[in-house]
Amino acid sequence: MRPPGLRASRHITLRGPELTAFQERHQALTYNDTTQVYKFQNIRYAQPPVGELRFRAPKAPRRDRGRVRSGSETRMCPQGAPAWQAKAYGPIAKYSNPNIEFDLKGWEQDILNSKVPSGDDQNKGADEDCLFLDVHVSKSVLQKAGRSAKGAPVLVWSPRILTRLKIHGGGYVLGSKNGHDPSGLLKHAREQPDEDMIFVALNYRLGALGFLAGPEVSRDGTVNAGILDQRMALEWVQENIHLFGGSKDHVTVMGESAGGGSILLHLTARGGNLSAPFQQAIPQSPAIAPVSKGSENNEGSFFRYLNVSSIKEAREACSKDVIAANAAHIGSAPTTTYIFGPVVDGDYVRENPARAVKEGRIDKSVPLLTGHNLFEGSFFFDPLVKTNEDFRMWLQRSMNVLTPKAIDHLANTLYPEEFDGSLGYVDQGSRQMRLWSEAVIDCHFDMLGQANQGKGYAYEFSVPPAFHIQDLTYTFNNPSSPARFPAAQDALQRAIVSFVQGGVPMAGQQPFPRVGRDRLLVNITSGGAGRPVASTVNATSWTDSMAQRALHPSLDTVRSIVDRPHAGPGKKPTLVPVYRQISSDLITPSAAYLKISAHSSSDYSFLFESAATEQVGRYSFVGAGPRKILATGPGYGPETDPLPALEEELARHVVAHVPDLQLPPLTGGAIGYVGYDCVRYFEPKTARPMKDVLKIPESLFMLFDTIVAFDRFFGVIKVISYVNVPDGSTDSPKTLDEAYEKARATVDELVEVLNSPDIEIPKQDPIVLGQEAKSNIGREGYEAHVTKLKEHIVRGDIFQAVPSQRFARPTSLHPFNIYRHLRTVNPSPYLFYVNCKDFQIVGASPELLVKSEAGRVITHPIAGTVKRGKTPEEDQRLADELSSSLKDRAEHVMLVDLARNDINRVGDPFTVRVDRLMVVEKFSHVQHLVSQVSGVLRPDKTRFDAFRSVFPAGTVSGAPKVRAMELIAELEKEKRGIYAGAVGYFGYGSEDEHGNPVEGAMDTCIALRTMMTKDGVAYLQAGESQTFPWKYRYLLTFGNRGGIVFDSDEYDEWQETINKLGANMQCIKSAEELYHQQQQQEAAKAGQKS
Asked: Where is the composition biased (Basic residues) (predicted)?
């Protein structure tokens, strides 16, 4: 029978808006009368990657209609085999014989004694012009395609013709589309009524031609060109398979070893944001070794093998020399390494794929049938490793991306030198095999199964000896190496075909179980498919352990970020965030603070926590040892607005955009406070001569470039620092490598401190009980202030004012012990402990002042309070009473109006809105009426303008705000200090993915329920609003003016400030009693011992 011809057309878009179309005519090369399958061979899917296209991304073929192609020539990409792997071929063949019993010692000795096959030319027939694919299609399917140009799937009643595509393995340096006979798979496909399958196999560039990496390639070439070859071939299938009778909507891709690792890269492409060009996948033994420093920059050594000095010269070299240099370079690879392979490129491969899968950045729409072999580590070991030091050197050589501490952890903890068999190995050789298997294959197999829970399936190939890639003999029907256990071959092929056809792999008449928490899989044995069993592969210890020791992103990613062209209008980034992640299950924020602050030589540190209403907030932040202190006020710095200097300091740095990096809102910047008295710089009319009793800075900010962040959603701690991009200045790192290693050292040091078992508890001096607090103005003074303000309210000067009084309470408590007690008795949205060397700030504020979030500035007015009920029913009744209280609602509306006015001063008026109005929020001891007002800043305004506009909050000043503050200053005559000011942070600015400047984060709270400790005295301050709410009630309910009777009682207002201070006063008292009791018990124990 004469094979039919067909015209294949293709339209493809790759990396940009450019469209390329082409037409080729192909004739089937062979037809198998037994299987009734045509083979269309060597269909071009990309231009020859030679000359100027060498080391670049593939390009779609040019139009060529001149002749009918049969594809009779050999098409194989240039390749090479590492000498250590070539030595294993003989022993693999020996032990694949079922008549020879596998013996570990004999296997290791055979590998040691084996020789590299002489005269073995892997490049016989190889050509750089190799980007072709083959299509195997049955006669019946092809005939239907001839009658229907759109393919069978278009006919909704007709059979579903499916496509199976194969990506070969070979360590990204070896292999081709040739040599694997899919006849068994196609035979099984035709056994199902009205079903069939098309098989496609492809070539992609290997070794240096597909995976050259380094600075020159990054600038004038394409990193991971081989992976992009695969992508183009997959897209060719999507566009053209209908011409063969296949369906572009039912494409399953399968790959073994490096082919399985390639599938993993496509599933996680661009951080999982790029849809995979297939609908199902079968990753078999998905192998990706940890990216090594060598493979991140292998161009220099390849150029030496090619005897050239640049990528330009390498493109000009003759093909024969390039092929020879590639093979020689690969052949020289140290044992268990390949020199070339995928690297993080900041684009298609944005991060280590294992990390992407673990953190959910994967195309989860693609169901998977994942497989692995029982003895994956088989020939991945160095028989010359005899001692533990040899093992460590092998680790460093094979996976030299690992830090010395990670190597210590692997050698001493995960894979210690214990050969009793309990850890899965009995000598140095099997120790290497075990580690390599888990690191390179098993962890990916396990993580893919878990990421695909509920949609995926898994199998384990355990036909003895179950070497790596031994299952290929059972997947295909290769005449040169027939399967020795036909039942196993039949079971594996049936499972694959049933998954391709129906989405569910079958074990005989029973479907595979879906991968779930029970981790069930089907075992393929010499007798066929066994019953589902629980997987023994659990890579959690490896992945968790190594993830905690890896610095993210990698140096290669950081380099690609620094080297990319800066197209945005803003300043080029000067900082790149990096972090390490550890579990937080045994470390609390308080413990972390004590460890880190004790380790630091600085007296400045902070701890920010959050209990958002009845929930624990997501993030907590810890820092110690700031790089710089900015302070203002008499005796500490200039007497001026503190924000310009802060803005200027933060503007010195811009944080780079790192694609898909998930970090908390605070990664570094300024942490501290702005005292209430700074308002005189924002609103000069409020300035009055004020007595300075506390003698602390009017503002103080600590500049941090390293932060410890707790993420309670995921139960992890991220230790975050910055890589300072070298800029040539005297205090700048000389090289990026130096800057990266400096950041790594900083992060590693803090991780070690956090993981240390020792916690230095604050030394507590002997407790003195019975100390009393003293007011700065007393009851009479406060009531006089109330009376005076009432007169101003009656005259219409103001609607509201919030006078305050301050109490000084001597205490022998350590300030952090006050905080420890406060956070347990009064959890709040803003919990903070700030050590400013000479004084400390301890707070549990319920109220946001202003923050920036998703492009909006936000403030939360709070007014209206009731206690919590003793029962759920009483709690709800009190909440209902608060919601219906006209007095509380009137005062609250006034504060919402004030907040809207503050936001309007800096925001686009069309964006200012009340997001929530008078919602009851429940806190630990009280319930509040809370609203939210937000708006988008005008282009000429910044977060600092927003802060000035809102500061201080109406809840601590009054309305109209400026006049109320003038009156407060005239009455109080003393600086308030931190009270009624703001505590929080301002982060560094950054850039978005397009290079546009993004203003840094801001989150500040009002310094309420806050204590300042200094020289053994805790200072507490509170105020109570004096309002004319009945004026608002009259206007709201009657709509006209009438006589008003003002009946506020001065004593009641004074008592209310005492009540507000009561929680903090009681906190100090109960903490003193607790520690006093502990000291007495310790003294009694000491007396008994003596």
From this structure: 58-68
